[in-house]
Fold each of these.
Amino acid sequence: MAVAEYVLTTDEHPSAEQVLTRVTKRWPYLSRATVYNTLNLFVREGLLRQLVLAEGNVVFDPKLERHHHFIDDATGRIEDVHWDAVKVGDAQLDGYSVREYMVVLRGRKVRRPTVTAKQPTAKQTVKSPPPSASASSVRRETKKSKEQGRT
Ligand SMILES: [Zn+2]
């Protein structure tokens, strides 16, 4: 099926509209309803994950194993970050049963000066904006407001 062929194999983290644009380019007879219904079905069936990585930015991710995400400030491009690349302490919150969490890193991609790089610049830059790069789960966005209480 056309939608599956694209969305279950992509690493682009497309929004529903992007999926629609992509699949109707090749299969123009597909209706918007069909595409949306299929996406919802895949999410219900657990074939696809629906992520809210930013306000009003719902994207689909076929990669089911746990991983983090990096969002490029300049392009908005969402990339997968290997689970082991980010160390987060145990999330033990009194009164909460945490089902899952994910770190969303934001920053910009640094062009690596070929293989001769001496310092691990890439890694440091990725973590440079700590406010939004904290261990904020996509499911616990409300927590952010507490953390912003600066004087
Ligand atoms: Zn992903």
Note: Residues 1-63 form a domain with the Arc Repressor Mutant, subunit A fold (CATH 1.10.10.10).
Amino acid sequence: MPASNVSAETRFVFDYLDRNAAAIASLGDAIFRFAEPGLQEIETVKLMTGILEEHGFAVERGISGFPTAFLATYGSGDPVIAMHTEYDANPENSQASGIAEKQEIIPGAPGHCEGHNVNAAVMVAAALAIKKAKDQFGIGGTLKVFGAPAEELVLARPYFVRDGYFDDVDAAFHDHIWGELATEYGQIQIAAVSAEFTFHGETAHAGLAPWRGRDALDAVVLMDMGVAQYREHMEPTMRAHRAITNGGTQPNVIPAEASVWWYFRDPSADGAYALFEQAKKIAEGAALMTKTTWDVTVKSAVWPVRANRTLAETVQRNIDMIGVPDWSDEEQTLAKALQKAADAPEIGLHTEARPLTGPAEMIMASNDCGDITWKVPSARLWFPSNVPGVSYHHWTGGAVLAHSIAHKGAVAGAKALAASVLDTFIDPEIVERAQDTHAEELGDITYKPLLPADQQPPLGANEELMARFRPLLEEQYSKETPVFE
Ligand SMILES: [Zn+2]
């Protein structure tokens, strides 16, 4: 699109983000080095909220009972537009940037091998650009910036929605790293219920008097068998997978307590919940057989992720204006080497943005932002800070996350996000139309939280891991502080 067709407001945010490219890179790199997994994003949130506060945002920390969640607000009145993203790393994902081979920065440590560090940098940069444009051009409306912890545990955002944080929001935007600059509409991801079952029995000496024991681990095993037998009768779209989180302590003590953590998934919220209900019956059966008792904690329960067509069209207009970064030969060579290592087609980095796609092809994974997307019209922006085809949560997915590929992709992503959000502030018709098409898209489905009304956030994940690795990670923290003008 010729530069003359770009509005003054859009030109303003593009220029601001180009001028602040070094700060965007520095912010993403700093979070990469913090390498904080879900619920431990302490330094990450301190840095993000510090920058937002310094630039005039009012920050509420610890929303919905999550110490590493936040809401940063700027402006007032209608419309109310939200941005939200995640910033957690993963266990065992320590990987150096800029090389096409596995190289842990700290052996065994957590790290970013997908790119949520860049998600955070893009959202903060876009928020600052929008704020500056609102000031410069006297644009009204409220911008709400949500920091969502522990996406990898599919955790926080259903709590935000249940607790009313989106009741006054008119439209919402989510940015996520990918191998291309793209958006889409329709249903993108599936629903999930994350629930931990705990069985309670009685200890006994497993040699001397096993008949005196009531074995909680037996109940976990029988529940596992019960769900396995049930698989034949599940809808083909359903998924159930688990980890035994407490399997007893030592063989000669019959365990009085044992736990298994399940994810139940389906493209529909009702389907995921129906599978969970069946699992509760299986747990009851396992308890009867073993003379144990049981309880269940729903850690989280998320709706599928969907994206609204009107907002997708708005984002796509900006994507087409921005285009993908100009990749260097060195960046293309590194990308191809990583694709080779990941056993993916060696196509290098995309040199064009993807045209608007929809209805989207659903991927059989979940994201905790699902509830937001049924509550309010929502957009998903994918930005090109990772290499197409690499494996996430694997070293190939972490090898460019503090490299010029991530940095350049982040500037493109921040531009697309800032310009699209700004469009909704400037043109009230976009929000009105988005709300109409949102209602049409939902049809006769009425959103109600899957999360139990009294469920408290399960905290404490990754605590022991970080107690071990934080002192080592601290030695690797960035020495520079990102400075946005
Ligand atoms: Zn992710």
Note: The chain has 13 helices and 13 strands.
Amino acid sequence: MQVRSFFERALRRPRSVPHGLRLAPQLSRGLPVLGHSIEFVTSTIELLFRAQRELGEAAALQVFNRKMVAMFGPEAHEAVFRASDAQLSASEAYKIMTPVFGKDVVYDAAPEKMAEQLKMLLPALRDRRMRTYGEAVVLETEQTIGKWGEVGVVDLVDFCRVLTNFTSSRCLLGREFREGMTEEFAAVYHDLERGVAPIAYINAHLPIPSFWKRDRARVRMVEMITEIVGARRREKREGEDFLQTLMDSRYADGKPLSEHEITGLLLAGMFAGHHTSSVTTAWTLIELLRNPETLARAVAEIDGVFGGGQPVSHQALRDLPFTENAVKEALRLHPPLFLLVRVAKQDFTYKEFFIPAGTWIVVSPTVSHRMAEVFPEPDRFDPDRFAPPREEDKRDFAFIAFGGGRHKCLGNAFAILQIKAILTLLLGQYDFELAGDAIVADFQGLVVGPKEPCRVRYRRRAQPSVSTAAGAELARVAAQGATAATGGGCPVAHPATETGTETKTKTGTGTGTGTGTKTGTGTGTGTNPTDSLPLPRAGEGRGEGVSAPPAPATTGCPVQHSPASAPSTRRLTITLDRDLCQGHAVCVGEAPEVFHVAADGKVEALLREPPPDLHASVRRAAAYCPTRAIRLDEG
Ligand code: HEM
Ligand code: SF4
């Protein structure tokens, strides 16, 4: 007996496994030498679902010469996402991006430099900037759907891709790029995208045409960005975009970013944000169309907020809780990034599992989001699971469509804002129905979207609730420096936002011209949809929710008058999880007396127990914090 257990131990556990720990169990059906390689290449997602079903939290796989451990569920995610870069490296796993982002940029840079570079993106993602982006998204959406007729058919995937390409390039690369967006730019960007393929994991410099094109495209992209940087500096123009933020950024030693680095960081933003936002917009609309009662509620909510002529502002968009939950639910069911990877640089321990250095650790939002013990009835599209009292995403590291912890998505607030703005303009103006194409997820690319064709039929609503001139109106409001969207007679003291500052910059600089263009376009295309058609066939699709939208509850105050706004005399204690904080300062916008951005770019709470007159704004800060870094305890 003793002899047998000796051999078992000798065979199964390398001597380096510390006492009391064990290796993660091996997934079944591994082939000699090849392990799980074939299944991994041909049906990755099915393999990962099988791993979770068979082995639970941790499953060991062998893919080619790599040892992998797939980890599932909130506790395992937390261990992975909170680990330091020195322990679990994201860079190592995403090295295939180096030929696109460039040498010594983001994942190719040393961890401290990468952290510094990513931190430079933060000012571009702060609350104040977000207002400008909201405006840009509204404008772009209006221009794109301005070309639609009264009725028609569009391929939703293609439509979302083109639209978010416009919005991303305007917000990230700037107005010059977007407005002069030539065929050359589209071709260069396309070549860069085509140069990112799984084969790069074997060798990112193989002598193949797509890699040659990729390398030529990168050189050209640096030239294009250098031209714009030079022109802005020469003409002393500034933009409200990522490009400007990066032009103004400095390393800790005072050195500015080179054009090579600026290009790399902008491309990192484009790659991270473009397709992910595009497919999420498409998935949300598809799920709403497949679930007519949820569609009716989203439309009613949009009509309620915007039906009274309210501009589609950043502030108003925040207060579409059902629509936002629908976006999150689409992200839960269809997370665009289905595989997140880290490489263990040191031995790593999770519970009783010992994971040796060199192992690739994979986390799959797609699989973990379908665990019934975390999200009951996991296959059901049910936006209310994120609303009180259920709040199924409240459990830390359960909802991981944006990753979590140290490398959590920096653009999550921007992405949600953008998707809600697009949905508001679409659903406020048109009725949609699926045109009958099979809806299937396409797991072939790095970002999982619906397979094309994925056509929808649209018909202009008889009584659109959102004006087609919303972008122009928004630009006008911003230009007046008005605090966005306080509505008539809202009793809540809206914080003095920084909109004024932003507007000043806009009118005083290059972006001012942008505003002019916006107004022109908005009014040109938009105006009165008074020539509306009769409503689509009665009783069809979502029915009543559309034809008879409930009247706005009040005069259009965008703030949820929930218990969150009620005056309080109870004690309120703030706990801030700085590991989760991304420093985009939504909380500072809500409660500047309590939160401030510290030198490391993250937020600090100045008061642990704020006085009762600040409770309402602190509750709003916690409610709007996209990472749930702020916890409140009522005493
Ligand atoms: C629905 C849209 C989006 C989804 C689902 C998404 C998802 C994610 C995920 C899962 C990660 C973590 C990757 C990992 O842990 O390995 C991530 C990281 C990141 N995302 Fe997003 N993203 C979205 C939109 C955006 C946008 C719009 C931007 C910027 C404009 C952006 C910028 C970034 C950046 C810079 C990182 C790297 C953060 C770091 O490594 O510290 N993302 N994103
Ligand atoms: S606490 Fe939340 S809202 Fe405030 S900066 Fe951090 S992540 Fe953003």
Note: The radius of gyration is 25 Å.
